[in-house]
Each structure stands twice: as C-alpha cells, then as structure tokens.
Amino acid sequence: MSLLQVESLSKKFDGLNAVDDLSFDIQPGAVHSIIGPNGAGKTTLLNLLTGIYRPSGGRIVFGEYDLTGRAPYEYAGHGIARTFQNLQVFFNMSALENVMVGRYLHERCGLASALLRGPRLARAEKVCRDEAAELMRYVGLRSYLSVAADAMPYGALKRLEIARALATKPKLMLLDEPAAGLNPTEALELDDLIGRLSERGVTVVLVEHNMRLVMGVSNHILVLDYGRKLAEGSAAAIRNDPKVIEAYLGSAVAHEDPVGGPSASAVAVAGEARR
Amino acid sequence: MPPHLASARTGGMAALATVIALLPLALSNNYFYDIAILVGLNAIVCVGLNLLIGYAGQISLGHAGFFGLGAYGSAILASRYGWPPLAAMLTTTLAVAVLAFLVGRPILRLKGHYLAMATLGLGVIIFMVITTEDKFTGGPDGIAVAPFSVGGLVLQGERIWYWLVGALLLVAVWLALNLIESPMGRALRALHSSEVGAEVVGINAADHKVMVFVISAVFASVAGSLAAHYSGFVTPGKVTFLHSIELVTMVVFGGMASTFGAVVGAAVLTTLPQLLTVFKDYEMMVFGAVMMGTMIFLPRGVVPSLARLFQPRRQEASGKEGGA
C-alpha cells in the first residue's frame, strides 16, 4: 500500500494553476525526488502536502487518513515533517531548543503541570534534551550543541531544520531544496545524510535543483512542469526522457551524450539557465 | 537543563525574594509602602502580559480592561452582593478567563497592527461598559470596596498588604518561569519566531495563542481584584487606554521575553514619576527623556541588555532567553 496518495490535486492562485490536476503515489521507504524548472509548482506542492496551503481541488491521503483541508499541525501529527527552502528556524532560541521544539508531539504536558513543573515534567525535559542532543550529533551538528541559532552558519541551519523535523519522528520527510546555498563539500555530506535518513526508515521526498544530488540518491523521480506531471520513473528513465529534456532546455535540441541520451549535467545546466 | 540556566532561574528567584524581604528596611512610612504595593500589583500584570507580548509575540493594548474587570468584579460581588472577597475574586477570575477565551479565539487570528487595533477596541469597550453601567459600577464616580478578608481575618493596612502582594508576585514569577521552560513555553517562543515552523512540528499555534492570552488576562484580573480591595475604592481611571499603554511600556522597558525584566520595568516606571516630582513642571519631560534614553542605549530593554553586557559572548549565552 502506498504511504501517500495524491489524487487530482490542484491549487489556483488568482487564476494561475500552480498545481494542476496532479496525481501520484509515494511508496514507503526509499528516496523520491520532485524536480522541475523554477515555477513548476514544487514548493506549492510541498505546501499543499503539509497543509500550509488548502487545495483548490483533489485529495491528499496519507496511509489510511484523508488529510485534505487539514491544518499543518495535523499533518505533523500524522507523521509528515518538512524543512524549508527559506529557513524557518526559531532564531530566538538555542540550536538545541530548536530541536527540542520538534519533540513537542512526543512530550505533551497539561497546562497545570507546565505551570507547576512537577517532577515528571522535569524528568521528561531531561529525556527531551538528551534526545535532541543525540539528533544534533546524528545530523553532524555536534559542535553547535550550546550555540544560539542566530549565531550559526547557513549550512548548519539547514541541518538544524532536518534535526528538528526528525525530532517529530516522521514517517515521511519533505526536504525543500536542502542543497541550495551549500558549498560542494556540504552538498556531498548531504548525500550521506539523506541516505542515512532512508535507512532509518523515514521515507524521503526531495525537492532539489542539484541534479548530481537528485540522480545520486533518488529511487524514483517525479518531474513537474507548469504544475502538471511531465514524467515519472527511475533516475535512469528520467535522464533519458525527451520530454524532460525539452522542458529544461526549452527546445528539442538536446546535448547528446556519447553513452546515449543527454547527460544529467546538461539537464542541470539547462535548469540553472531557466532560473 | 544546563547548570547555568538553573542558576539564572533560581538565582533570579532568590534575588527577587531577597529584595522583597529587605525592602521594608528602606520603607520609612506608609507612603513608601503604598508605592511598593503598587509596584507589586503592576509587576504581576506585567509578568503575565510579558508571556503574551515578550514570549508569544502577540500584542495587547487592552489589558487595563482585564485589570478593570477584575477590580470591578470583585468590588461589585463583594460590596453590592456581600460575597466573601475570596469567592468574589475567584469567580471574577474565572469569568475573565472565559471572556478572554471567547474573545481571544477570533481576535488572535489577527496579526501585528490589526491585533493591536482589536485589543485596543476590546479595552475601550470594557471601559465604556464600566463607565456607563453606573447602576452596578457607580459610573465615573466609582464605588467603595469592602476590605479583603479570609475566613473572618480582615487584611488591612499597608504592611500586611505589602507581604501579601510580595508573596503573590513571587508566585506569579515562579509560574511564569515554569511555563516558559516547559514544552508549552517553547511552543510559544517558537510560534513567535516562525508560526509556520511551529505548525509543521505539530504545534497548534491558534490554541497556544489563546491559552497565553487567557493566562495573561487572569494575571491582570487577579491584580485588579487585589488592587480594588487594597485601596478600598475603584474608579474607571485604571481601566483607561492610557493604563493599557503604560502596562505595555513597562514590559518593553524592562525587556521583552524576560520575566525579571517585566518586574524591573514595572518597578522603574511606577516609581520614576514619584521620584521625578522634584522636577515639578518638567516632570513629564524628564520622564520622557529617561524613556527615550533607555530605549536608545538599552534597546532590548533594561534586563536583557544588561545581561548581555555581563555575558558578552553570545555562544555561551544560549538558552538564557528561557531563564532570563
């Protein structure tokens, strides 16, 4: 059974169809990527899949639950977590506290116990702190354990969002352009991290422009253009799909690769060019 | 919890308790006691208001309204209907909590300036009701309030009230510090920084905003009830828009997102006008200059700015916002 089913999903903004009658399934496990030229509707789609936008039409079914029209915190409660292209870090807190906020769903307390701070809450807080620290080490932020979030470099903040999302113990994790703004070394480390997320049993949906990253880690790729599904399949199939190449290059004249089919780098370069 | 955070918290509580315990040595007459009690009551309101403004990042320009409802609720139930003062206060507090909940739901959907306008409107409506329903409230003339008593024990006189208000202020600060360091408090600070970021980790932002709005209204209402019994008389003077602004100013002056800052802000801005009477005609000018100077040189408010001075390395200061 698929983990996530999207059925003829649409989102209109003042007559513009940002996402247009889109249907696809996400199978549990593995890494799924969503690619497409800028303005193809990728970020809109992620906002729909986390309840930030309310769809104009269609359904979003997660496991056995129909989440269409629900609020973002309900999506989180069902096990969908995400990171943001434009960071949504809590800059008024320490890095560790950011991750501790991510444990909110698993450390609920009543108002009375919050105000009176009973011994049970104090113990739960200790566990929360330890687990948050463990997650920070897991994503490679060991050296930022006692640092304020507003004192961290950009690349570290991207990892911090991943740690915070992991703290919610998600079944599905949506990563919105995690490699954007990273230097090549940091981007390479990201391959490893995404691989480990997948091994941890978290299904990953990756929205990304960095084709090296996408082609390297994805088991399955969905290509969007003008809010519609252009193509879907394995990395190899997508790389050789003429429709995909045309969408990225804007014409059928593709750069031929001697091995056969245009290279991923040609697709990537063309993608950059259309920005 | 790292040790430095625990010490900032317990250290702050201990310092506040010490000040409250030793202050009577410097209070040579009832006039000074009166000012100290006024400081304590304002500080209780500000500690609650700071949870809303400083931590959750929501504004209220109508909190004098909740203070007034507390004062008039206690006054009317205790004096006109002869309720025991404690029962009158608890009933009033509950009623204010219900009102804040019902009003908070729709208006806390608004943000920024719009929320400011809505809460301002709420405060004005409460003021209008209190001044026009003179059958119950005495209108602009106000009404006399019976002294506070618990089980036959009548609490009267500045000295007794000083210890009562001092103890309640400590309780208010303790509750606020506990809340801020709980998962709920982190949720409030999170939605202040990024509402969408908070929502996607499972925090129902609307519910949390309403909850903290109700808590801050309850703090204001309790302080209002106490103020009514203490002074023995209530007038609409403390229910005005101007008093709402004074309360917000105290929070900002002392330092947003700092519980002890709220106490310091209430203390300074309550006593300063008394001290400045030596300037006679220029009193308000000097008062304004002090305010402007403070915000220019201590832009984060008194307590957080001074705390930074003594703790210049930001990296070691992480987590202090929760404890300050």
Which helices and strands appear, and what pairs or packs with what?
The complex is a heterodimer of chains A (275) and B (324).
Chain A: E1 4-13, E2 16-26, E3 31-35, H1 42-49, E4 57-62, E5 65-66, H2 72-77, E6 80-82, H3 95-102, H4 111-116, H5 119-138, H6 154-167, E7 172-176, H7 184-199, E8 203-207, H8 211-217, E9 220-225, E10 228-233, H9 235-239, H10 242-249, H11 264-273
Parallel strand pairs in A: 3-8, 3-9, 6-7, 7-8
Antiparallel strand pairs in A: 1-2, 1-4, 4-5, 9-10
Helix pairs in contact in A: 3-5, 3-6, 5-6, 10-11
Chain B: H1 3-22, H2 30-55, H3 63-80, H4 85-107, H5 112-132, H6 134-137, E1 143-144, E2 148-150, E3 153-155, H7 158-180, H8 183-193, H9 195-199, H10 205-231, E4 233-234, H11 241-254, H12 259-275, H13 283-297, H14 302-310, H15 320-323
Antiparallel strand pairs in B: 1-4, 2-3
What does this structure look like?
The complex is a heterodimer of chains A (275) and B (324). Chain A is an alpha/beta fold and 275 residues long. Chain A folds into two domains: 1-79 and 170-275, P-loop containing nucleotide triphosphate hydrolases (Rossmann fold), CATH 3.40.50.300; 90-167, no CATH class. Chain A has helices spanning 42-49, 72-77, 95-102, 111-116, 119-138, 154-167, 184-199, 211-217, 235-239, 242-249, 264-273; strands at 4-13, 16-26, 31-35, 57-62, 65-66, 80-82, 172-176, 203-207, 220-225, 228-233. Residues 251-266 and 268-275 of chain A have low confidence and may be disordered. Chain B is mainly alpha-helical and 324 residues long. Chain B has one domain. Chain B contains 15 helices and four strands. Chain B has helices at residues 3-22, 30-55, 63-80, 85-107, 112-132, 134-137, 158-180, 183-193, 195-199, 205-231, 241-254, 259-275, 283-297, 302-310, 320-323; strands spanning 143-144, 148-150, 153-155, 233-234. In chain B, strand 2 (148-150) and strand 3 form a beta hairpin. The radius of gyration of chain B is 19 Å and the shape is globular. Mean pLDDT of chain B is 91; it is low at 314-324. Chains A and B meet through helix 2, helix 3, helix 4, helix 5 and helix 6 of A and helix 7, helix 8 and helix 9 of B.
